[in-house]
Amino acid sequence: MSWWKDAVVYQIYPRSFYDSNGDGIGDLEGIIQKLDYLNDGTKNSLGIDAIWLSPIYPSPMYDFGYDISDYNSIDSVFGDIPTFKRLLEEAHKRGIKIILDLVINHTSHLHPWFLDSRSSKSSPKRDWYIWRDGKEGKEPNNFLAAFGGKAWTLDEKTGQYYYHSFLDEQPDLNWRNPEVKEEIFKMIKYWLDMKVDGFRLDVVNLFYKDAEWRDNPSRMFKGIRPYDRQVHIYDRDQPEMHDLLKDLRKLLDSYGDKMSVGEVMMDPPGKVSIPASYYGQNDELHMAFNFAFLYSFWGAENFKKVIDDWQDALGPNNWPNYTLSNHDFRRHISRYYAGKNSIARAKLAALMLLTLRGTPFIYYGEEIGMESERVARMDLRDPVGIRYWPLHPGRDSERKPMPWDDSYSGGFTKGKPWLPVYTKYEKRNVQLLKSQENSIWKFYRDIIHLRKSSQVLKEGNIETFISPDKNILYYKRELGGVQNYIFLNFSAENSIINIPPNWLPKKILIDNVFNYEKDTAFQESKIFTMLPYQAILLSDR
Ligand code: NOJ
């Protein structure tokens, strides 16, 4: 198996992980200092296998790194190339892979390429970006920017419009120009030569737009944002993307066992056939994110549907992956909020995430049950929130500093944190939860370590079921005759489950209600009652 199929991936939002120099912003040296927390080879650490770093390249930070002004370096706020090399080395020593964020749909408007491109119509870089004349004094077509406003901005100097899928400080590259591809592939090689292990590709289905720039049709009212009221058929998912991904795959494969995972914007949000299409015939992306859990409501049936739809869309040969939270969405513990039962729900979700067939992606802080918290308007940092509030509240709430202990700023920084800290940090921080019996941190840790040592959990096939009262999602994982069974009671009530006749559970490996270490013998009964939000993992031996 390739390492990335067996890996548990941990996403770090570098600004918010750990600040080593007191400037209030997390940095690479901070990540190095926390590598042992992530995996020191013992059960004292979480045990993750790979880190996906949100962008660390030089950037004017209009979109906090998703607007890159130099692809071959590190922003001074995070460190420098030698520090990055040390991070790679220290991570590799611990068996942790490093995945970089590749943001190549667009650059910063301050990237030298765009400055050049913008300087005149005859610039040799003019065609590296998307420039069009207006139509009857208006934008070239009706495309909108994902966060708000038009996707076209008029540049007074040359009288033409440039295209940006996101902020106007993020002009889109013109992927129809072969020079762009050549230059970007050169940059990818630069990082591969440095021994990075893979890439997460930002908005991978947006690179190509309709060659004729036709207008997107409008959609019957759906959502309050104008962007959601267009059917996005011409501003994304163009056939040319598949050829590009095939070339990228060849490049990655030529370096050995590298991994690519693409972020795919789904229109409408749950349509998993779209990310599935970017796996190609095992010759495009290694994986594309399925964000269906981010959009689905709590419930056994809803969650079963996400798993089944994804398996069906991928077929037997493409490898699934699952995500509950990331830096763009309300954290799942807050989405699935259930008052005093929120932690129980979060544990259930964790058991599911880490026992499904497919690579699990964990977002920093989810292992301690950190919530998304409203950030006061005066403290907002995300321009999306600042500019488009209240249509878009921004994403600061899910990017708060990681609380390490109960000292000042949750131990994140000695300076002034760039975003307000998590208000519950005194009761919910790494140090405390690592020492507390039955904490959510220990729950994550235990399942991760169990998964690492279990071929059936990593690679076994899966069959999903639902209880007659629709409260319990349960599934079987099987590999070479070994069986594991997972039962998840999504309801706040006791629910009864009948174990299928050919299932032979013998032992409880994990249980979020009882202390499973003291309670390993499973009663032979074929019917049992699950307590509210109970989540258990059983094995047949
Ligand atoms: C998707 C990223 O996840 C998001 O944070 C960013 O703002 C946009 N792409 C634009 O790069």
Question: What would your notes on this structure say?
Answer:
Strand 5 and strand 6 (160-163) form a beta hairpin. Helices cover 25% and strands 15% of the residues. It has helices at residues 3-6, 28-33, 35-38, 81-93, 112-119, 178-193, 240-253, 273-277, 292-295, 300-314, 332-335, 342-353, 383-388, 430-435, 440-452, 455-459, and strands spanning 9-12, 50-53, 97-102, 131-132, 152-155, 160-163, 198-201, 259-262, 287-288, 321-323, 359-363, 461-466, 472-479, 482-489, 495-498, 507-511, 527-530, 535-539. Helix 12 (342-353) runs parallel beside helix 15. The relative contact order is 0.10. With 541 residues, it is α/β, with parallel strands linked by helices. The model is unreliable at 517-521 (pLDDT under 50). The strands form 4 sheets. An 8-stranded parallel beta sheet has the order 9-8-7-3-2-1-11-10. Strands 12-13-14-18-16 form a 5-stranded antiparallel beta sheet. It has 3 domains: 3-107 and 178-451, TIM Barrel, CATH 3.20.20.80; 112-163, Alpha-Beta Complex (Oligo-1,6-glucosidase, domain 2), CATH 3.90.400.10; 456-539, Golgi alpha-mannosidase II (Immunoglobulin-like), CATH 2.60.40. The longest helix is centred in the middle third of the chain and has 16 residues, at 178-193. Bound molecules: 1-deoxynojirimycin. 1-deoxynojirimycin (NOJ) is lined by residues 63, 66, 103, 166, 202-203, 263, 327-328.
